[in-house]
Write a structure and sequence with these properties.
The complex is a heterotrimer of chains A (242), B (649) and C (273). Chain A is 75% helix and 0% strand. Chain A contains 11 helices and no strands. Chain A starts with a helix and ends with a helix. In chain B, the strands form 5 sheets. Chain B has a 5-stranded parallel sheet. A 5-stranded antiparallel sheet of chain B has the order 11-15-14-12-13. With 649 residues, chain B is of the alpha+beta class. The two termini of chain B are 46 Å apart. The longest helix of chain B is centred in the last third of the chain and has 25 residues. Chain B has 17 helices and 19 strands. Chain C is α+β, with helices and mostly antiparallel strands. Chain C has 2 domains: 124 residues, Ubiquitin-like (UB roll) (Roll); 130 residues, Fumarate Reductase Iron-sulfur Protein, Chain B, domain 2, CATH 1.10.1060.10. In chain C, strands 2-1-5-3-4 form a 5-stranded mixed sheet. Chain C has a two-stranded antiparallel sheet with strand order 6-7. In chain C, a hairpin with a 2-residue loop joins strand 6 and strand 7. Classes of the chains: A mainly alpha (242), B alpha+beta (649), C alpha+beta (273). Chains in contact: A-C, B-C. At the B-C interface, helix 3, helix 5, helix 6, helix 11 and helix 12 of B face helix 1, helix 2, helix 3 and helix 4 of C.
């Protein structure tokens, strides 16, 4: 779980970085161009997406197995069950937040990946969706659950991988919180901004026109992707979801 | 073989001690011992009862040698044997501190500490193998305290003038036991030791004069079952719980040793009881056991009581001139660090004078006021923080502000089953190790020597001496189907039935408390002939009453704590009588045995070497109609040390 | 719970000079798990005590109750206990939903009744985990721990073969760290308090103790693999890193040992032949 979890965190970081391009101009051109660039990878993109899906399913399957095994390890529960304050809200709700994130991801894929691309570009689709009250709510709840999930996940993964010790425990715990806040708040910015109307992508720029202007950035992306194949697949996938 | 009256005879007692120069005896003896051919070892089945330091180390080293071993313990795991509670440390004559220690010095200190009532040969062997014990324990991963440079740390303990005590925080016994236990479990994992946890040995089976097996009760199912073997090792600890309140764990009992005694093994020096001076006092009638506070507290704490008996002020209100620092007054050179028996008796004396403190007036102050002023509260916290915390948890009193209250408590029993130099009892094939035997500590045990003896017996003595029996005698195979096993099983069942069917009103625990109080009163820190005679009469009465009036609800075919306890209390009742008889026989004061009639004018123990320089070993008189004993005396010969008065002034 | 803890600590400190008569006895309602044997159905039985001395230990309070049960012809409540000094690890009990009760770094046998309030209701249950089946009432079978040790929790050192104890200096820091881990008393509170009934803290303490010492190096890889394999066989749950075990441990064993166990395990997997 720790390995798949950390890789998924890696994907989320790239995904957030990609999404932030929505804020880089008013027209959404950069973002759309970024999406097109990823699309241009062709079959490679499907491989990457498949990898990401496998990672997600593995995480889910391992989570299910651990949960069932753990339930089975104590069939007679305590009549009165009090913890000693070591477990956090996040750590005790990993299954719940995990399920919320799962549902959210499905909705998210239906919204942006499994639907036909709107002629006015992906950026416009995103803005429209997040401007609706229901859309904004779903996205805020989804990424909120994700943030909570992550606030236990990172440190837990480090512990499971044996990368923790008494000296690093506090820094690692802080890093875990930071990851949760950056990703949680980072993703939450989009529904918050678009729903509140603080930023509107009014005119959808021509996607094709944007391609040459983003060439440099795409090269940078490629450099990243060549370093870690999963990350590259992640970024590819992230775009397709829009 | 035995005389019909209770007069002395030593015909039964061949100590088998080797002769020659003291330092060469063990070496010579080991060479003289027969060896068991490695190929034959697995054919010999050894039953080890008890899995403390002695039992675990014996079982694992015999299995290493290739013997087939079965190990039995009453706890749910061998790791919980009471050796685990020893705090202070373990002695060894390593001389790592270069402070003049040697095997001979450890030998001498132990002989003197035991008030010259132990065998020279045994004690010297103990001192010799002490050095191997530390090596073995370190190899097993015992995390002894170390200095910055990585070498082992030592401290001086229990008034020793050299630093020879190895320790692992305040948990030395725990760490040593976990080491021995891990070795035992390795053998269990490899299938060389078969482990029977929650099994209590309830009798010994002797066939043709040789110990051939044991009868156990499975404490979970109540099943009574026999186990046959070629040798039986009792490693079942001491009998301090005869006093009900002691520092021993609740399950500590004499039953295995006592059953062996009833089957013919002689029981030696039962009156030698060690009373530890620094225990948390009794807080009420509910008290179930006593907690030891490490002796190290006496390094900085000052022991006192008010000079006046009717003192009602809180301790901080009593000015110095109205305090009696009685240890410093009576023993100026050792002061608060005087040996255990001496400090304990002095505390009893001031309490008997009515100068005790606390609600019950049965405790004395151990005051850190001056040490806190001198070294600062932080230094004291660094040294004793854990102990202070434990004290506060138990008493609800804060020792940084209010003096601790302490009182002596029964801690260890030097007496036990009589064994020869091979650790074999008077029943061939029955060996007794650790606290359960009587051998090495004489009339008083020095601090940090119990762990040493348990491991010495298990790791470095029994692996050799068991061959004296296995290779030295001819005996055929028997199985648990043998008629004698059937007969003993039947006796065990009948005994349980008798206890179970007594239609009385009182719990075993209530009888145990009553017996304990009586023993503490009459056969505790100080004894006298009149009191001992009274006690014998009263013990007999109570014992009679016990079998009539005990009540044990529940079922014998199930886990039944009250039933387990009932059997042990029944044996304590018999032992109690023998302890009093032994104390009555010994018309002298020595070590843990103080007879009020035999003291120097200033109240110190007065030994009588001319008449009592012997180990008193008692044999159950099988010809008597009721329980009676015959005394056998093993003279103690001192060729290498001069008998001297133990003086700590 | 913590507020009652504080008031009673203050109460204890106020009545310092051994004036026991001043302390008021407590009235308690106990709900105690009774179960005849492993296969029987268990249920709570309710007992009322109205004269519990605040100086009693928790187990002494149960002793008193048992004496009364026996006097009334009822079978005593079975519970494990032995040294009553907090070191043997025999005592267990889940007190008001917390293994070893609410006090930090304290075994059940070291809890004293002055920490409870007059009129309080106390639930007493066994340690619960499928790997620790109930034997009777409050007694559970913790032999799974013994089997884990037998699988690999040792250093192979035959008596007689050991080199001189000072032949191999061990830095004090390493010795201290090993001792910290070795302080585990094997009581099983880590399992009982873990929401997943995981035994990782116990196993990690033993693995750490031996892996930190130079003597433990020869069997370092095989040890951790064998112990983890046995742990999994025994049916303990998985660790989800919530640290409840550390909070419940009467000896304060740190979860950093669990990280070390994971590290040792991965290392052994990577280097095993």
């Amino acid at each position: 779980m720790s390995v798949t979890g950390l890789l998924l965190i890696g994907f989320l970081v790239v995904h957030l970085a990609g999404n932030l391009q929505l804020f880089s101009d008013d027209t959404g051109e950069h973002f759309n161009a970024y999406a097109e660039k990823l699309k241009s990878f062709g079959p490679l993109l499907y491989v990457a997406e498949f990898g990401l899906l496998a990672l997600f399913v593995a995480h889910l399957a391992l989570g299910l197995r651990v949960t069932f095994e753990n339930r089975a390890a104590r069939s007679q529960r305590y009549a009165l069950d009090r913890d000693r304050g070591a477990r956090s809200f996040a750590s005790s709700t990993m299954v719940v937040t995990g399920v919320i994130v799962l549902v959210f991801v499905i909705v998210h894929l239906l919204d942006f990946r499994l639907r036909e691309m709107s002629p006015d570009g992906l950026a416009a689709m995103v803005v429209r969706r997040l401007s609706e009250p229901a859309g904004a709510l779903i996205y805020i709840v989804g990424v909120g659950a994700l943030g909570i999930h992550l606030s236990h996940a990172f440190r837990s993964a480090m512990q499971t991988l044996g990368l923790n010790n008494t000296r690093y425990d506090v820094p690692i715990a802080r890093a875990g919180k930071a990851v949760a806040i950056v990703l949680g708040v980072g993703f939450a910015l989009f529904p918050l901004v678009y729903f509140s109307g603080a930023k509107h992508s009014t005119h959808s720029a021509s996607v094709r026109a944007a391609v040459p202007s983003t060439q440099q950035r795409s090269l940078a992306d490629e450099a990243v992707s060549s370093r870690a194949s999963f990350e590259s697949s992640s970024s590819g996938h992230s775009e397709e979801q829009r | 073989m035995s005389t019909p009256t209770a007069t002395a005879t030593n015909s039964k007692l061949d100590s088998k001690c080797p002769s020659g120069p003291l330092a060469d005896r063990w070496e010579k003896h080991r060479f003289d011992l027969k060896l068991v051919n490695p190929a034959n070892r697995r054919k010999f089945h050894v039953l080890v009862v008890g899995t403390g330091l002695a039992g675990a180390s014996a079982a694992s080293s015999l299995a290493e040698l290739g013997y087939s071993v079965s190990a039995f313990c009453i706890q749910d795991s061998p790791r919980r044997a009471h050796s685990i509670a020893a705090q202070g440390g373990i002695n060894a004559a390593k001389n790592y501190q270069n402070d003049g220690d040697s095997v001979h010095r450890l030998f001498y200190d132990t002989i003197k500490g035991g008030d010259f009532r132990a065998r020279e040969s045994n004690v010297h062997r103990l001192a010799e193998v002490s050095v191997n014990i530390i090596d073995q324990c370190v190899a097993l991963g015992v995390p002894f305290a170390r200095e910055y440079g990585g070498l082992l740390a030592n401290r001086s303990f229990g008034g020793a003038q050299v630093s020879r005590t190895f320790y692992a925080r305040g948990q030395t016994g725990q760490q040593l036991l976990l080491g021995a236990y891990s070795g035992l479990m390795r053998q269990v994992g490899e299938g060389k030791v078969k482990l029977y946890a929650r099994h209590e040995m309830l009798d010994l089976v002797v066939i043709d004069g040789i110990a051939r097996g044991i009868v156990c009760r499975n404490l979970i199912t109540g099943e009574i079952k026999s186990y046959a073997g070629d040798a039986v090792l009792l490693c079942t600890g001491g009998y301090g719980n005869v006093f009900y309140l002691s520092t021993n764990a609740k399950a500590c009992n004499v039953t295995a040793a006592w059953r062996a005694h009833k089957r013919g093994a002689l029981f030696a020096n039962p009156c030698y009881t060690q009373i530890h001076p620094t225990c948390i006092p009794v807080s009420g009638s509910h008290q179930s056991k006593l907690t030891l506070m490490s002796e190290s507290l006496r390094n900085d704490g000052r022991v006192w009581v008010p000079k006046a008996g009717d003192e009602s002020r809180s301790p901080d209100q009593v000015p110095d001139e109205e305090r009696d620092y009685y240890l410093e007054r009576k023993y100026p050179s050792f002061g608060n660090l005087s040996p255990r028996d001496i400090s304990s008796r002095a505390a009893k004396q001031v309490c008997d004078e009515g100068r005790g403190v606390g609600g019950s007036k049965m405790s004395v102050y151990l005051d850190f006021r001056d040490a806190i002023v001198r070294d600062g509260v932080d230094a004291i916290r660094a040294r004793y923080g854990n102990l202070f915390q434990m004290y506060e948890r138990i008493t609800g009193e804060d020792p940084y502000r209010v003096p601790m209250r302490i009182y002596p408590a029964v801690h260890y029993t030097m007496g036990g089953v009589w064994v020869d130099y091979n650790l074999e009892s008077t029943i061939p094939g029955l060996f007794v190790l650790g606290e359960a035997n009587f051998s090495d500590h004489g009339a008083n045990r020095l601090g940090a020597s119990a762990l040493m003896q348990g491991l010495a017996d298990g790791y470095f003595v029994i692996p050799y001496t068991i061959a004296s029996h296995l290779a030295g005698r001819k005996f055929g195979k028997v199985t648990a189907e043998h008629a004698e096993f059937r007969r003993v099983e039947q006796e065990v069942r009948e005994r349980i039935e008798r206890l179970k069917n007594a239609s009385g009103k009182r719990s075993p625990d209530s009888f145990h408390r009553e017996l304990g109080l009586l023993m503490w009163d009459k056969c505790g820190m100080a004894r006298n002939a009149g009191g001992l005679r009274q006690a014998i009469g009263r013990v007999r009465e109570l014992r009679e009453q016990y079998w009539q009036d005990v009540k044990i609800p529940g079922d014998a075919a199930n886990l039944n704590n009250a039933l387990e306890h009932a059997g042990r209390v029944a044996d304590f009742f018999e032992l109690a009588e023998l302890m009093c008889m032994d104390a009555l026989d010994r018309n002298e004061s020595c070590g843990g045995h103080f007879r009020e009639e035999f003291q120097t004018p200033d109240g110190e123990a007065k030994r009588d070497d001319a008449n009592y320089c012997y180990a008193g070993a008692w044999e159950v008189d099988a010809s008597a109609s009721s329980l009676a004993w015959k005394l056998h005396k093993e003279p103690l010969v001192f060729e290498n040390v001069k008998l001297a008065e133990r003086s700590y002034k | 719970m913590s507020s009652s803890h504080d008031t009673h600590a203050a109460h204890g400190a106020a009545s310092t000079h051994g004036a026991h008569a001043e302390k008021k006895s407590l009235r308690l309602t106990l709900h105690v798990w009774r179960q005849r044997d492993p296969n029987a159905e268990g249920k709570f039985a309710t007992y009322k005590l109205d004269d519990v001395s605040p100086d009693m230990s928790f187990l002494e309070m149960l002793d008193v109750l048992n004496e009364r049960l026996i006097a009334g012809g009822e079978e005593a409540i079975a519970f494990d206990h032995d040294c009553r000094e907090g070191i043997c690890g025999a005592c267990s009990l889940t007190i008001n939903g917390q293994p070893h009760g609410f006090e930090r770094e304290t075994t059940t046998c070291q809890i004293h009744m002055r920490r409870f309030e007059d009129g309080q209701t106390i639930y007493i249950e066994p340690f619960r985990a499928n790997a620790f089946p109930v034997v009777k009432d409050l007694v559970v079978d913790r032999s799974a721990f013994d089997r884990i040790i037998a699988a690999g929790g040792f250093i192979t050192a035959r008596a007689g073969s050991a080199p001189d104890a000072n032949a191999l200096p061990i830095p004090q820091v390493a010795a201290d760290a090993a001792m910290d881990a070795a302080a585990c008393i094997g009581c099983g509170a880590c399992v009982a308090s873990c929401k997943n009934a995981s035994a990782m803290l116990f196993v990690s303490a033993k693995v750490s103790h031996l892996a930190l010492l130079p003597q433990g190096q020869a069997e370092r890889n095989s040890r951790v693999l064998a112990m983890v394999e046995q742990m999994d066989k025994e049916g303990f749950g998985n660790c989800t890193n919530e640290s409840e075990c550390e909070a419940a441990c009467p000896k304060g064993i740190s979860v950093s040992n669990i990280a070390r166990l994971n590290r040792e395990y991965l290392r052994a997997l990577a280097s095993s032949d």
